Amino acid sequence: MGVLTSWAARFRLRQYIKASLWIVPLFGLVLGVLLAELALTADSADWPPSGWHYSATTASGVLSAIVGAMVALLGFVVTIGVLVVQQATGTLSPRYMRLWYRDRLQKAVLATFTGTFAFAFSLLRSVETDSVPDLGVTLAGVAVAVSLVLLLIYLNRFTHSLRPVAIAELVTRMGEAVFTSGAAAIRDAAPRGDGTVSSDGPVMRVRTGRGGAIQAFDVAGLVAEAARHDCVFVVARLIGDFVPPGTVLIEVHGGTAKPDPDRVTDLVALGSERTIEQDPAFALRVLVDIAIRALSPAVNDPTTAVQVVNYIESFLHTVGSARLPGRYVLADRDGHARLVLPGRDWENFLQLAVCEIREYGGSSVQVCRRLRAMLEDLLDTLPQSQHAAVRAEIGLLRESVEREFTDPARRAIAQQPDHQGIGGRYP
């Protein structure tokens, strides 16, 4: 297919636009030039009031100062961005950067600065001794005021939002939203009957021509393509998996005609890294990364790890309340099974949430006590079907505590559940 005619190519383009820091500011630059032309056209009207008229010298000085100020502020924001990258990769998680690049406020600030710069610079060429763009100079001053307010909001937001707890809250909300919407879509597309798929071997295997991480599936497109050929697509790899070239992506079962492999692979988006759009486990991965980074000997901050566990517990309650068979069958409009997607079950999510934190934080009293409280809360609130995996994790945590704390008194303290790690009470 053409460069942008396939679903996968359009998905990658959307991902690039969301993560780009130059596209929105470029639109701001163009909009600033256009608004300057409109201001010059409207300047012949009897506005602004007589007290707001400017001399040519004053107008040139004001506009020149605005141009210089906007360039300086752009440099300042870029410097903040570099510092954020250093902090995120050093003390948080490199995976978080993919989310930070998409921040709309940051793009709005950059667009406002570039737009104000272009607006003021475009007005400078029209300043003459007998002709001054009074309306434009006034609007340029208003734009500077708006830019300064946005800058203050930007600084306030990122000085507060770059704390590990704030990032954990943001990532948890995103992960829960993706999980909830995905679970609803799967329920709505449930097939009639038990949704069984023929046990006969596949009549065709669709392989990928390029490598990369599986970022998303065009579920509706795959269902429609399978219905067109009266067959069932069975996806062979989990979303988030990295697949080398030549890997089997989809197995085709049944059908009267074989689908075009290129058309099928164009419905699967591959990229350089995982995304959160259809992969709620990636949100959990980011949370665990932040927690274990805090537990590294270089940082040694178990309190931050405990705070992140608070949000991991919230995420696990959302996931554990849903039924996760680990295999999802989706149907077409007529109720016939057309697409089988592999998925993570409750045990997979729980292991991802607990395993590494337990291993890296096994020597921390805070972490052990907080994990124990979290696991016992899950036993208390989740359905009985989820308890086996939780009890298994409690057993592994108990073994880790016994291995790390050889003194009976210290071991007894580490095995007590505590919602705050140390200093709280457990009912």
What is the 3D form?
flat
What helical percentage do the residues reach?
55-70%
Percentage of residues in strands = 5-15%
Mean pLDDT: 88
Q: Helix-strand pattern, N to C?
A: HHHHHHHEEHEEEHEHHEEHHHH
The number of helices is 15
Structure write-up:
This is DUF2254 domain-containing protein. Keywords: Membrane, Transmembrane, Transmembrane helix. The chain crosses the membrane at residues 21-42, 62-85, 105-124, 136-155. It comes from Streptomyces tanashiensis. Residues 408-427 are annotated as: Disordered. With 427 residues, the protein is an alpha+beta fold. It contains 15 helices and 8 strands. It has helices spanning 7-19, 23-42, 56-91, 97-100, 104-124, 134-161, 164-188, 219-228, 261-265, 280-294, 302-320, 346-360, 365-381, 387-404, 408-414; strands spanning 204-207, 212-217, 232-235, 242-243, 248-253, 268-271, 327-331, 337-342. The strands form 2 sheets. A 5-stranded mixed β-sheet has the order 1-5-3-8-7. A 3-stranded antiparallel β-sheet has the order 4-2-6. Strand 7 (327-331) and strand 8 (337-342) form a beta hairpin. Helix 10 (280-294) packs parallel to helix 12 and helix 12 runs parallel beside helix 14 (387-404). The longest helix has 36 residues, at 56-91. The chain is flat. The mean pLDDT is 88.
